[in-house]
């Protein structure tokens, strides 16, 4: 069983739609990261959370430590949001990654 | 904004050859990492490095792998005798303890 599970694995949306990606984890963590990976492969950090909620532009990330669950929301989605979104939890020094959610937003 | 720099971006090597992947972490970061991503799979932890020594390593990081911070700025990953299954994207990352985890753009290693 994966220590970090994401859903859905693939997501297709029309431009303007509200998008939610979910992450559940089963290990102890000091923080949870949401990352974005584009087709070229580079990884960009979107958020690091240890509690509550963070917002950056059209992106919102929440975490519920008791339920071991986090969500990433994208409001007013745009084709440029198309990418793989990855949840990763910080366990000791290392990050444990989920398998990612591939998002495609069509005009 | 400070960046983690990795070179080369793409390396092709013959099976059995040694390769060295190079990284320049962010200057005031204290923790350094190597991760890899085999094509189509999730990112996997290889090793973390702090205070000039390995602080944690995964099962993947066997005797064929080594890391070094030779000059206070570079952080290298060496694979002694590459195998076909070492073909992957290798990411370097650095952090200041709890905050500021930053990834490099990766080195795509192809073993032929």
Count of DSSP E strands of chain A? 11
**How much of the sequence of chain B is in beta strands?**
over 45%
> What is the C-alpha radius of gyration of chain B, as a whole number of Å?
13 Å
Mean pLDDT of chain B: 93
Query: Which geometry of chain A do the CA atoms define?
Result: globular
Summed over residues and divided by their number, the pLDDT of chain A gives a mean of: 95
The helix-strand sequence of chain A is EEEEEEEEEEE
Helicity of chain B, as a percent range: under 10%
Low confidence ranges of chain B: none
Helix content of chain A: under 10%
Helical stretch tally of chain A: 0
Q: How far is the N terminus from the C terminus of chain A?
A: 37 Å
Number of helices of chain B: 0
Low-pLDDT runs of chain A: none
Features:
heterodimer, A: 107 residues, mainly beta, 5-stranded antiparallel sheet, 62% strand, B: 112 residues, 4-stranded antiparallel sheet, 11 strands
Describe this structure in words.
The complex is a heterodimer of chains A (107) and B (112). By secondary structure, chain A is mainly β. Chain A has strands at 4-7, 10-14, 19-25, 31-37, 43-49, 52-56, 59-64, 69-74, 83-91, 94-97, 101-106. The model of chain A has no long low-confidence stretch (mean pLDDT 95). Chain B is mainly β and 112 residues long. Chain B starts with a strand and ends with a strand. Classes of the chains: A mainly beta (107), B mainly beta (112). Chain A binds chain B through residues 30-31, 33, 35, 40-45, 48, 50, 86, 88, 90, 92-100, and chain B through 31, 33, 35, 37, 41-45, 48, 50, 55-56, 58, 89, 91, 93, 98-99, 101-103, 105-106, 108.
């Amino acid at each position: 069983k994966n220590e970090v599970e994401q859903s859905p694995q693939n997501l297709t949306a029309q431009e303007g739609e509200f998008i939610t990606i979910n992450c559940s984890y089963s290990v102890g963590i000091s923080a949870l990261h949401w990352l974005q990976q584009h087709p070229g492969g580079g990884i960009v950090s979107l958020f690091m959370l240890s509690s509550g909620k963070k917002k950056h532009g059209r992106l919102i990330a929440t975490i519920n430590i008791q339920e071991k669950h986090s969500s990433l929301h994208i409001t007013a989605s745009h084709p440029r949001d198309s990418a793989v979104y990855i949840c990763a939890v910080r366990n000791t020094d290392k990050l444990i990654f989920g398998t990612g959610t591939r998002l495609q937003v069509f005009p | 904004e400070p960046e983690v720099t990795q070179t080369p971006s793409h390396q092709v090597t013959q099976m059995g050859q040694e390769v060295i992947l190079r990284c320049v972490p962010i200057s005031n970061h204290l923790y350094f990492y190597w991760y890899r991503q085999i094509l189509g799979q999730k990112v996997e932890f290889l090793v973390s490095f702090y205070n000039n020594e390995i602080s944690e390593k995964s099962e993947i990081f066997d005797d064929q792998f080594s890391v070094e911070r030779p000059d206070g700025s570079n952080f290298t990953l060496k694979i002694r005798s590459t195998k076909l299954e070492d073909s992957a994207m290798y990411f370097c990352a650095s952090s200041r303890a709890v905050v500021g985890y930053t990834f490099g753009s990766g080195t795509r290693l192809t073993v032929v």
